[in-house]
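Dear Dr. H.,

I hope your travels went smoothly. While you were away I took the liberty of generating a structure for the chain from your last submission, since the lab meeting agenda had it listed for discussion. I wanted you to have the full record in hand beforehand rather than looking at slides cold. The sequence, exactly as received, is reproduced here:
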Amino acid sequence: MIALSIVIPIYNEQETLPDLVDRLDSELDNIREELRSVQKLQGTATIEILFVDDGSTDKSRQLISTFVETNGIYRQVNLSRNFGHQAAVAAGYKFARGQAVVIMDGDLQDPPELIKQLISKWNQGFCVVYALRRTRQASLIMNTAYRLYYKIISVLSDSPVQADTGDFSLLDRTVVDIINQLPEKERYMRGLRAWVGFRQTSLEYDRPERKAGKTKYSMARLVKLAVQGLTSTTVKPLFLSGILTFMSIVLISAISLYALLARWVVPEDRMPVGWTSLITTISVVGFGQLMSTWLLSVYIARLFREVISRPTYIVENDSLALDYPNQPTTTDRT
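The corresponding predicted structure, in token form, is as follows:
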């Protein structure tokens, strides 16, 4: 049995990989010591470190191969091209074999020294432990944009994502298995991590600057990730058309009432010919269009939920297994 999998998505990180491996190697004894204290592992402290190369075009893949050849603790999964960070994280969950899985970036902004503290929280009975960024080294504009995004997603999402968190986290095997079984293809892992539930807690840390190389998240990629996060965790933006429809009904009613009253109040020589009927027709047609849009939004939201096919609910534990040993698995109960 493998106690812990450390999954590290990599894309063009040749500058940071040697330092990353050195720091991981120096922490292995501390991590193993912490694992031996986890009751559910019964003294097992086996570790695997899984690099997921996301189509790197520099020497990252060759460096990882060298680490794998020289130390059996390392494993390597090579994607055929650059599929994106979230896809690489999904691949890491799929190939990880540990009873707990830690996801961390390869740029050393997720300190390996925090892994033992994540394990300590896991040992307290939490199934999800996410690293919470107390501070981050970013410009004022970027920090403001991050705060705004998390405020928006916390208001709109069905299962709000904890603010100022990334993918750096520890997940229990149960949670990993459930996420792996979800059928949706476009995956926003932080949203799925929040959606599955179970006992969750945070570990605060100060996010350091990148040690070397350049960030792979351009502004365009950050915007794409933000949109992916919003559209995968909620359908509430679709219902904005309902609010607009209600506001339009009030406005259309007022315009129609004014048009009808004006017919009797405004002298005929000052009233354009056909004005009343034109305004009334436009109001009725506009109302019909907005109402149709709102109804389409309702059905699109329902289709979205059906297409992603997430379970209706997830059972954490129950007492039925003793009496009904052939009960469906956790994610089969839909």
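Two observations you may find useful: Confidence is low (pLDDT under 50) at residues 321-334. The CA atoms of residues 15 and 212 lie 6 Å apart.

With kind regards,
E. W.
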